[in-house]
Specification:
Three copies of one chain form a homotrimer. Chain A is α/β, with parallel strands linked by helices. Chain A is built from ten helices and nine strands. In chain A, the strands form three sheets. A four-stranded parallel beta sheet of chain A has the order 4-3-5-6, sandwiched between helices. Chain A has a three-stranded parallel beta sheet with strand order 1-8-9, with no helix packed on it. A two-stranded parallel ribbon of chain A has the order 2-7. In chain A, α2 packs across α10, α3 packs across α10 and α4 crosses α5. Chain A is globular. At the A-C interface, β4 and α4 of A face α3 and α10 of C.
Chain lengths: 346, 346, 346
Amino acid sequence: MSSSPVCPCSLHKGAVGFRVAAISATKWHQQFCCFFSSVPCKPSPISLSNSVSISRFFPENRLPWGHTGRSLPINENQCNAISFENPCSFQVGEKFQLEDVIEAQQFDRSILSAIFEVAREMENIEKNSPRSQILKGYLMATLFYEPSTRTRLSFESAMKHLGGEVLTTENAREFSSAAKGETLEDTIRTIEGYSDIIVMRHFESGAARRAAATASIPVINAGDGPGQHPTQDDIKDYLMSKGIEWEESDDLMEVASKCDVVYQTRIQRERFGERIDLYEEAQGKYIVDRDVLRIMQKHAVVMHPLPRLDEITVDVDADPRAAYFRQAKNGLYIRMALLKLLLVGW
Amino acid sequence: MSSSPVCPCSLHKGAVGFRVAAISATKWHQQFCCFFSSVPCKPSPISLSNSVSISRFFPENRLPWGHTGRSLPINENQCNAISFENPCSFQVGEKFQLEDVIEAQQFDRSILSAIFEVAREMENIEKNSPRSQILKGYLMATLFYEPSTRTRLSFESAMKHLGGEVLTTENAREFSSAAKGETLEDTIRTIEGYSDIIVMRHFESGAARRAAATASIPVINAGDGPGQHPTQDDIKDYLMSKGIEWEESDDLMEVASKCDVVYQTRIQRERFGERIDLYEEAQGKYIVDRDVLRIMQKHAVVMHPLPRLDEITVDVDADPRAAYFRQAKNGLYIRMALLKLLLVGW
Amino acid sequence: MSSSPVCPCSLHKGAVGFRVAAISATKWHQQFCCFFSSVPCKPSPISLSNSVSISRFFPENRLPWGHTGRSLPINENQCNAISFENPCSFQVGEKFQLEDVIEAQQFDRSILSAIFEVAREMENIEKNSPRSQILKGYLMATLFYEPSTRTRLSFESAMKHLGGEVLTTENAREFSSAAKGETLEDTIRTIEGYSDIIVMRHFESGAARRAAATASIPVINAGDGPGQHPTQDDIKDYLMSKGIEWEESDDLMEVASKCDVVYQTRIQRERFGERIDLYEEAQGKYIVDRDVLRIMQKHAVVMHPLPRLDEITVDVDADPRAAYFRQAKNGLYIRMALLKLLLVGW
């Protein structure tokens, strides 16, 4: 630890190097802010994805989705300081570098740093009254092909906090139903005529990219099927390709005592199919409770993309290291920042 | 009757004492304004609920939900004047006494009187152009775990009439589905990060109270299961505990000739289960039609929480004593008043 | 062709007389703008409907819905110029002639011309920033008894582009469900208390007219069952009653080479019932592809109400004569114009 350049994320004031234990893969768009703090420390900018993690737990070497896991001993993972001496290298009013937000890999560290600066401004806007009208007159369409109320409300809240307006649909499948059979491209060509930016959730991998290729207005990917939900084998390859060290372990207590971030997630029942016995076994395996808290470092945090079931016990909530509700709130600021950047620039 | 302090409710100008015939229990949030005028006259402030009624009808002593009813002779119920000499004892800008609106029992007469004053201002706002922007920059989340379009639209209209904005969800069950299993408390902690006030409808009794206990922002109960839909036995006990006289009768014509308010409601088919015969019998038993109007007093009103089926005939609608559509509109003003009071105070 | 008075529709600059080939009946509210250009040329104003078409194709004389078709030889259909020397004969601020918009027959040519002038202003408003606030403080309720996301979003976009606000319901059937049994009239009386204008889609023919008769605020018909979706026999009778010549043909190529507008539509599978074989035969019969484009006149356009399936091939999209996405966008401007006219006048 040092006092040199610190994480701009309000969760980690003063922290400069991170060891992250991510218990399973989760959706990037719900964790955007958090991954900033899970950047493994490398001198040059690297691409980020939700698969950037240091340690990963699986119940007794048996991966629920049929792969064979290996338990590796936990090593110290010494990180350099994350440095972003000049995070805001972009002029106010300058055009945003990205036309669409489709995947985490689009961002390098300098853009991320600058986005977090904007997110911090957004936090001030949200907390003050009267609220900003930066996006007054702008219309966002939330084109959700499958419902995701939490994600949708977060984007809509972000837009409305900036004075913008929203067109909502949660049953967009109707556009492309078997009965009607319209292509995604045709739908996008219609919706772009009604709005200034599209936030899309789709059930098919690659749909967001197709929408962005068609639309003349910005598209934000709020999830498209298994896309941006990479499997463990993807993650390992990706980390190795970037020269990032990682390990697997099945000893939560040992890892928790060393990590800066314990990133817990819901065990997704739907992945176990008929094997309800395996699900139940996995479910109880790694629970973050007061015992885990007790051995965690003082500055460390517990994160979770929500919703949670039993994998974090409720009595953890009151601990200042329980960061998951702050995390959801920070997601709002990031969404406000992205909408602002895509529509009116830096 | 006297000319002394009058009901501030626009329905009852000049009326000072009321005999109310409520034909069955209904939802409090749809009748807020109306119950003001159904307050049995007592010198000291009393708590109000939708169960405050004077007379109640059941088909030939047989209660559809299996209880045994008794027919009682109708007595005159002499009321004192409702007095609220100084209804507006609250300073403009002063904080509202309530943090949440969960049940009718939270209100005493002085608060109710003052709320009705604010509702009257809201009526002016709604009728004038350009409309008020009192709540500009505020965000209301309508978190409905079961759909209730009428109630939702009324709240959303109230918010938007005051310049506020709305996040809508009618499928909030998704948040807490068996598959995902999130607790109400966790959902509230997320939604409170996106909005300034939550209007919630839930299928479980007590859910609104739990939400209010969790949230750091105001919660308005727009119905939570059988909560605030008390059964007849509750009502009797409650009235007796407050020392309020009441009677039951099966003679609609006699009661209608004496009452100030005939509060009709829909007979809820879903309560009869398989006994469709009992439902059909009950359905035709007490119909407010032109014959009933003929014997009603000139100043009396017919109220109904809507939707109505056949229990009030359509030819009653044109009579000035048919108050049910005015009642729905007044519900809008009350909701505007409550939103204003909870968000910015008196 | 002449240089005299031209179509104000941006699709047809300079075009003065039209021969239209409409391949099947479609919904008027999606085609509003387009029908302007499909007005058969008559010296005196005529009423318009979506059934105004010149040529109509059916697969080999067999009409899918069981009627007997006849193939007629194609004749030249010489039109006079559409003349609207003084389209804007209405004073700014003057009250709009119509209280509701229920059917295309309400419009005569002079009103249509003036509406198109307003639509052109709306196009400027939509393209400029900051956007207009003409309808600030006004509330539109979209009361949809059956979902139609595209239509709903278009109306909501129109309202919000003018600074107005929206109350949305896509499950309005709940209002009038068998269980609750409320009449449309009662629903309208409640909703008109919450909003300033109602856009309604209903599953029953005539519902829009009933709603308009009840409401004291404007009602716009966004489709009511088979209403405004006239059958072919209706169309023929209507055209004959107006003295308009028409023909039927099954030779797409010949017609396409002569027409100014090829109005293609989706073949509605739901009309074929069990006869999937007939559907598939009909489906492939008349496809607008690059071969059709090749023989079409240079100034002609291909229109479609969307969504499209295979009846126009995707490689047609890039041709400047492919007007269907412009058509959807123009629908937005028309809706903006109608909302402005109904709420604040000319």
